[in-house]
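Hi R.,

Here's the chain you asked about this morning:
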Amino acid sequence: MSVTVFIRYQLDPFKRAQFEAYSKRWLTIIPACGGDLIGYFMPYEGTNNIAFALISFESLAAYEAYRARLRTDDDGMANFVFAEEQKFILAEERTFLRKVVVL
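And the predicted structure, written out as tokens:
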């Protein structure tokens, strides 16, 4: 069974450009570490401080292996440090979803 991680970010609305730069870096890092990146989604109209990301994995075990690789990836760790230093992410929530399939 595959699993999709739905990440909801609460952003500092005055630092959306920093979040966009952060997101663009993940576009190559996540696939290199084993995630199937569906995409990052920025505020466009309406609420200006909420963004989303969707990443799929073959299983929860594959997700855990990805997280371990991410912690040893130089570019991934540099992006985490960038986020901590710039403080544009105010909160982050992860939800694990499964696709509904017709039997």
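The helical segments are 16-33, 60-72, 74-86.

Let me know if you need anything else.
M.
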